[in-house]
């Protein structure tokens, strides 16, 4: 039986998070949960777990791993438009390797400093088998701000992404040995896989501009699919408009297209914005020095379709599934 | 090299949680961290990780495991005097066993309902090797309330514990096969090990009464030692006053004494209270139907000493250490 993590959470744990138990809460299933903690403020919390051999290679540079452990959680906060306030670290390690720990802490700490998201607690335990990392990140939203919910996309919205896609998946394929790298592009590309930059400032600046947002951790098709499903809408994206990292031009175009449509671990934001706010999105991008790409449009008819040469093809998710995918 | 979890956190991660990075924060090292999140409220957060083969047996009843995963975190909130508001679950499982997951979720959910601490998010991943569980619990404190800090014990305070000690350690020894159980006491005793009851209401009622508090997760000697060290004080406890579960009377008294002084996994609170508040502590205990035990006194001279028959013996920690102890 191969259930994905979404089905798992849905089936066994979602009912534990009933709206009745916490009025005003937006529960399990979005990038992060929102709690109306006090007048004036809402708390935003998320938790992502990384496991050795599944989410990272055993020989990954420990400072990159420390960076990524926090980055994937900051990305979830960004996808809600939240301002980070702190994080907690759960860490299981088989042995105490001081060099490794110091480097891991340095990588996590540098990102925590940059986004003012200090480590405020945690638990470190022995794990006989392998390394696992469970980071919880906390952020805040003003009480009048609904946040960038997955369920808030509206018919007619433009669909945007915050940067080029495809690099992490191509880097992963090279590292797994399933894609040749004759021009030795890996050293540049693996930075995209191992040191994603969470779009923290962008998320906050999209408040009041964007309707819905999600981070592309599981692949554009799967993640945009979550937004469409939660919002009860459909979409058409224009394959010609999808931003592709130009360093990928040396690889087989069909492999690159798959990486762009289905490849996970990207941590760019995908967001939907009413068409009349197009100039505001462009202004936000310019203020942050970030090129933003308009890739499609939300429509009433359900399903996610790709448009190319005037014809439409339905895109079915084949993104990242922690239980279906072979270990890395 | 055998560093304990405390040294690990201290050495590599504590400096990441500098007060400068979060004014008003009480950082890594207490049962939970306190953040001044908004006018009127402080947020209290904690995270405890449980690993198969180390913190629980592989064949533990899954509903008991779900209960305990949340209970140990609610206990940390209780030790701060915080009111629970929600929790997040990070779960790694090797395979998808629907019966196991449903039972685990039921155990966690029942405790979450009882303490109004709904599951608000999480991440479930495949873990090739074994089960690990990382729960984060969130609570609140009123802004005028400092919380029950480890560092707040005062010279002259009485030292109290919230219930009998020793049961979980004796149950563990029987389960490990290192202690004989001729009268088959295990069925009753293992409930104490596997289904600890967090002292959530007690913690909140001790606000304004107690100075310092901690939960006895790592053993009375070690945990009270943390309070004394953080507060820059010492203490004398009266061995005759230590509450021992009467079901332990059938075991060797020296084994029981060790279990009471050093055995972890108890999740009773140990707290210090100015002597003039003694009647208030008794009233709190009566209002909750909980027998509270006064076991000693805080004094200026450093170190933790046990008094018996008029002589003093220094107690050195040999409590739970996740890296020194053999796997369960």
Sequence stretches where pLDDT stays below 50 over 5 or more residues of chain A: 322-328
Task: Round the Cα radius of gyration of chain A to an integer and report it.
Answer: 19 Å
CATH superfamily of the largest domain in chain A: PurM-like C-terminal domain
The portion of residues assigned to helices of chain A is 25-40%
Number of helices of chain A: 9
| Greatest contact between two chains | A-B, 75 and 76 residues
Structural classification of chain A: alpha+beta
- The CATH first-level class of the largest domain in chain A comes to Alpha Beta
Shape of chain A: globular
- CATH architecture designation of the largest domain in chain A: Alpha-Beta Complex
Can you offer a commentary on this structure?
Two copies of one chain form a homodimer. With 328 residues, chain A is of the alpha+beta class. Chain A has nine helices and twelve strands. In chain A, the strands form two sheets. In chain A, strands 7-9-6-10-8-11-12 form a seven-stranded mixed sheet. In chain A, a hairpin with a 2-residue loop joins strand 1 (33-38) and strand 2. Chain A is globular. Chain A starts with a helix and ends in a 14-residue tail after the last strand.
